[in-house]
Specification:
elongated, Tetracycline Repressor, domain 2, AcrR family transcriptional regulator (chains A, B, C, D), Tet_transcr_reg_TetR-rel_C_sf (chains A, B, C, D), 0% strand, HTH_TetR (chains A, B, C, D), DNA-binding transcription factor activity (chains A, B, C, D), 9 helices, homotetramer, mainly alpha
Chain lengths: 220, 220, 220, 220
DNA sequence: AATGAATGAGATTTCATTCAT
DNA sequence: TATGAATGAAATCTCATTCAT
């Protein structure tokens, strides 16, 4: 799933009523994220999560109905941390390429910070059809939104009229997300220092976007 | 992993010596693929695989040392079926864009045929670091190869000199593979008939490639 | 292994924290001993042990990481019950033969009480090289200790100077342990009542010890 | 079991009729001994035995009805190789101590040669009550025979009249067999060269026998 | 709320034995 | 006889979830 896909928050058996309860729940969510990221959902053991949170196994079920629900909560809480590439569509006011550059930078930075979580999401997407459907819908919605922008650019003669706006939008987003996957989830970095590496990614992907959309002098 | 990543073949306990053995082993490999694709590696039960193959549970272990090894064999055997985008690098003889078009078409067609398998690979990649490493290496090698072509085009003034050849190559490949994922693994199709849909993908991604690489009239 | 060989205590997954846990663990240890003695280590089923202890199969693994570990614990706990022949070396204060008599009596009595356990130990010794090494070391240490006493007696003219003290010590201990094996593990009793039988063993072995060590009037 | 305990020969499904059959059977028996000695009866796999014999698994069952039967045959065939301590009772013609010395030497030498087999026998004895009974009976018979000799010596004033002839006989034999076990099965050798070590065992045990039986000057 | 032991269904794997060729 | 694949009945061990305290 793309990082920002909205996940339904699991309905915990009961919201914590006491301050202590709030603390325990928070510890469990943090522990769950740690363990899920470390072991993957399938191999993660409820026992380990509780141990990591410093509480008894039974307490886990005070706050979550099941392991699945804990995952759901972890993913939900993580959403705010993870941004979408080009989540802020270009406005007319500023240079649209500056906006896209910033958006790509934010995305790569976020992916780098949350690489283990992204890997977890890939696993969940591979396991859970429901999650897959959420991801699909989210990607679709994003692409439709971007497609409108592209269509507009085409109308104004600023984008290659041959492109299918929707497919192009989806493909370009895919380019960014998968590039982040290769760089940060798989760790295929070029070997510069971390920030230079990130800037190179931003520069390259943004330029590819720009090139890809521009009206071409040749015809085909 | 990208479909074409080479997987080491698991070393079965022993190669079948009789025709009957060959048949049983083949049935088990086919059954394993079916069940892995249907249930995912983790949920797949050896019992189910044997049942699907029409033999006793124990026979599974005549040919595979473990469930992992069966997976390995399935993935290995699947390689020949799945091609890489732009696996055939353009030769000078023909129009390079024709070659890329053909390559993309082959890739999307293959991905469509093997969508469940691709999903399985995503799961394995999310679970198994070793598999991830294979995927990383393969992607790296591919990108290096393509990067050389791009650099050459740059030298001849036929490609945008601002682009980092390696990063561009990797990103463009990522665009294709992830587009296939959205379309066929997630099932986010546009709703045309299947072949038209595929052709639209081919057209769009190829044109994006072409645009993305071309030397731009503007400067930045 | 000879009954008294010290066995490393297996490190249980976790020591019980509650009274109930303590009870369950104790029940499992007792049950394990019963079943191991009845069926032998190899044939003993974890299921049976749990059933004997009156708890669920899974509970077995709350306290032992494996069947092996349970065996280890059983053997370790049994050590305190089983004594060594001549474990209490004669002191100068009392008649050394009285001390040896007492020691032999204690040993035979213990062996009689724990005959099934001894048989289990024989099985473990036959199976497990590590256990064998423990037994060997223990026997060696014992023999060295006794050898010193014998050497001293030789110096004082009270023991046959022709004897190798170490080999003699080991052989005499072997005589006692193996005699107990024949009588109680194999059940080759003479048919007197139990206590008279035991006393006859004590009397015979002690006298053989005494005779064997004494300086002989003949030479050879 | 003491090495020489007579084991019933298993009744093979059929005696080999052809020369080839004779060869295969012999290979299987040899292989079975090798594997049983190496892995113990319980862990020995029929597959391994067949492989060791260089024939197919199925062929094993051409000659043996079961794994147990193969064991039986191995043990039976081994009997001729393994002697009993003092199996040849002293005759009046020669010096009885010379005879016992020779007998002990033969026993230790045999035990040394067949140490793995002896270990196997210990395992079988620990596992199989029937085997235990054979061992018990054999030991009993031996002790009765020797007891008669001892009684006779007592009558002639050449042996300690206080000793129970049967118990003494059994104990002295136990001394020898268990000493061999410690030395060769457990490998607790003194560190001389092999032959010197063996001679020391012979000398010590024989002298202990002699001393142990002799009429003592003291009374008790 | 917290604790941590208890539960038990279920999965993988082993291997003696059978059997078709 | 020989072969080697097929069989399938266990047995060990896991772990999400429940529950008594």
């Amino acid at each position: 799933m793309s990082p920002q896909a909205p996940v339904r928050a699991g309905s915990s058996p009961s919201a914590p009523a006491t301050a202590r309860g709030v603390r325990t729940r928070a510890a469990l969510v943090a522990a769950a994220r740690t363990v899920f990221e470390r072991d993957g959902f399938t191999d993660a053991k409820v026992t380990d999560i509780a141990a990591e949170a410093g509480c008894a196994t039974g307490s886990f079920y005070t706050y979550f109905a099941s392991k699945e629900e804990a995952l759901s909560v972890v993913l939900y809480e993580a959403q705010r941390e993870v941004l979408d590439p080009a989540a802020n569509p270009p406005t007319n006011d500023e240079d649209p390429w500056d906006a896209i550059t910033a958006s790509h930078r934010a995305y790569f930075a976020s992916y780098r910070r949350n690489a283990r979580l992204m890997l977890l999401m890939e696993q969940v997407a591979a396991i859970d059809p429901e999650f897959r459907e959420i991801r699909r819908r989210f990607g679709h919605t994003y692409a439709e939104r971007t497609a409108r922008t592209i269509a507009e650019l085409q109308d104004r003669g600023l984008a290659d009229p041959e492109l299918d706006p929707f497919l192009a939008a989806r493909a370009l987003r895919a380019m960014v997300t998968r590039t982040a996957y290769y760089a940060y989830a798989l760790g295929d970095t070029v070997g510069l220092d971390d920030d230079a590496d990130l800037e190179a990614l931003v520069r390259t992907t943004t330029r590819l976007w720009r090139n890809a959309l521009q009206p071409t002098p040749y015809d085909r």
